[in-house]
Amino acid sequence: MRIAEIAALVGVTTRAVRHYHHLGLLPEPARRANGYRDYSVRDAVLLARIRRLTELGLALDEVRDVIADDAGRELTEVLGELDADLARQEAEIRARRARLAGLMESPPSAEGPVSPALARLLGAAPVIDSPMGAKDRELLILFDTAGGSEQFYEALHPLAESAELHGLYRRLDELADAAPDDPRIAPLADALIAAIPDEVLAAIPTAPGQPVVTGFGEALLADFAPAQAEVARLVMEALVAQTRTGEGGSS
């Protein structure tokens, strides 16, 4: 194959092929008597792998390291890995399209497109004029964007539809300017824990051995006023403790 042919086969430009030659990513092939490069199937496989790795976000020096690790492998093995990579891409694309279809079919929401399960939950919950209630909805939408669980949303319906939720949000709002040692904190945390349905605990994913507050949890607490953050911390600790107790009892 000539350079234009291998470039067209793999879906890159001839300029990209020459650039990869210059960087040493793609070895220069033997030349014909007329001086044209003569590319083989293995050259095409290597070029396709370079393209795939760059599309995955690897820098060219990282691509070079990966290719070096592949040196000496059989062509069938390299082809098999490329085929597996493509299969994973296809599966990811199908999953994204399925999620996109679900978003397009969801009822309109003021917060933008959400999954059907979350749309049902938000639609069932009464509109509450509460800053903490609004923050709760934002967190649910963030969770949904990250791939939220339909089981979790369904488990939240009894709480979302209860009149008790109004009072809990009001009590949280009242702590906006309170100190982190306010005496209302512990009773409110207890009330929130008691209001959470048992089904919600079963739907919360946990990782044994992890601290109660890490990563997202720390960012979440930092977004609250001090007294509200203390309530949230107590609730998070209790939920994790209850969930782990449940796991231990079922094993």
TrEMBL record:
Quote any Pfam family the record assigns. Answer: MerR_1
Identify this protein by name.
Answer: MerR family transcriptional regulator
Q: Which domain of life is it from?
A: Bacteria
Q: What does the record list as coiled-coil region(s)?
A: none
* Cited InterPro entries: DNA-bd_dom_put_sf, MerR-type_HTH_dom, MerR_fam
UniProt GO MF annotations: DNA binding; DNA-binding transcription factor activity
> What's the source species for this entry?
Streptomyces scopuliridis RB72
| Segments forming domain HTH merR-type | 1-69
